[in-house]
Amino acid sequence: MISMKNMISMIFICASSILSAQAGINTQTPKATLDITAKKEVLTIDGLLPPRLTLAELTEKGNTLYGMDQDGTILYITNVSGGDRLSQREYIESKGLYIFDAEAAGNQGRWMCLFCYGVL
């Protein structure tokens, strides 16, 4: 049987996880949903690395894994020498940063270039 003290503790733990709507990295006071504060040390490398895949690796995932729930997903394509440019990958022509637009191509979705190298 659960004691009243344990029950109250569980309620507070659950409530605190629900009330915590913001997360911070290197900060105790996040100013947005995700707030990443740079470290100021000279020898610390700062930045954000998105998930990195080759076109071949993205091709292996197929054409149905990414859908409406992944609208806005960001990937960095590191190499386009393998894989294919069919369906959702139609516009991947060079390495770079891509965002998934789930509503493109009649809601089939397409990876669209945010910042790509070698695209004229």
Features:
single chain, four-stranded mixed β-sheet, about 120 residues
Can you lay out the helices and strands and say which pair or pack?
Elements: H1 4-19, E1 23-25, E2 34-36, E3 52-53, H2 55-60, E4 74-77, E5 96-101, H3 104-107, E6 110-116
Parallel strand pairs: 1-2, 3-4
Antiparallel strand pairs: 4-5, 5-6
What is shown here, in short?
With 120 residues, this protein is of the alpha/beta class.
Describe the structure.
The relative contact order is 0.13. This protein has a four-stranded mixed sheet with strand order 3-4-5-6. A two-stranded parallel ribbon has the order 1-2. The protein is of the alpha/beta class. The longest helix has 16 residues, at 4-19. The mean pLDDT is 87. It has three helices and six strands. The chain has two domains: 4-36; 52-116, no CATH class. Helix 2 (55-60) links the parallel strand 3 and strand 4. The protein has helices at 4-19, 55-60, 104-107; strands at 23-25, 34-36, 52-53, 74-77, 96-101, 110-116. It is 22% helix and 21% strand.
